[in-house]
């Protein structure tokens, strides 16, 4: 599903009059979750899932076929864990 199809789906389920309103709602949700994760806060939507930010440790290794080595830095990454309600609904759709 591409973004345009998703906007139409949100418009239908959210009873929005226009696609612009539905797209604004999607953008507001994404911006709010992003802002919370940047502030290192978790966002939990009961029955849907949890958005968290986690520290991903840096790693070091060698490039295959050469003697070159590399090291990556630690960084914060977003994570999503599906809730039971979402898992159950997806399992029913098989």
TrEMBL record:
<keyword id="KW-0226">DNA condensation</keyword>
<protein>
    <submittedName>
        <fullName>HU family DNA-binding protein</fullName>
    </submittedName>
</protein>
<dbReference type="InterPro" id="IPR000119">
    <property type="entry name" value="Hist_DNA-bd"/>
</dbReference>
<dbReference type="InterPro" id="IPR010992">
    <property type="entry name" value="IHF-like_DNA-bd_dom_sf"/>
</dbReference>
<keyword id="KW-0238">DNA-binding</keyword>
<dbReference type="Pfam" id="PF00216">
    <property type="entry name" value="Bac_DNA_binding"/>
</dbReference>
<dbReference type="GO" id="GO:0003677">
    <property type="term" value="F:DNA binding"/>
</dbReference>
<comment type="similarity">
    <text>Belongs to the bacterial histone-like protein family.</text>
</comment>
């Amino acid at each position: 599903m591409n973004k345009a199809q998703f906007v139409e789906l949100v418009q239908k389920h959210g009873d929005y009059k226009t696609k612009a309103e539905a797209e604004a709602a999607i953008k507001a949700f994404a911006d709010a979750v992003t802002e919370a994760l940047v502030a290192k806060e978790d966002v939990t939507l009961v029955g849907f899932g949890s958005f968290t930010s986690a520290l991903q440790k840096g790693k070091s290794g060698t490039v295959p076929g050469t003697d070159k080595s590399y090291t990556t830095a630690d960084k914060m990454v977003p994570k999503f864990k599906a809730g039971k309600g979402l898992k159950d609904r997806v399992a029913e759709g098989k």
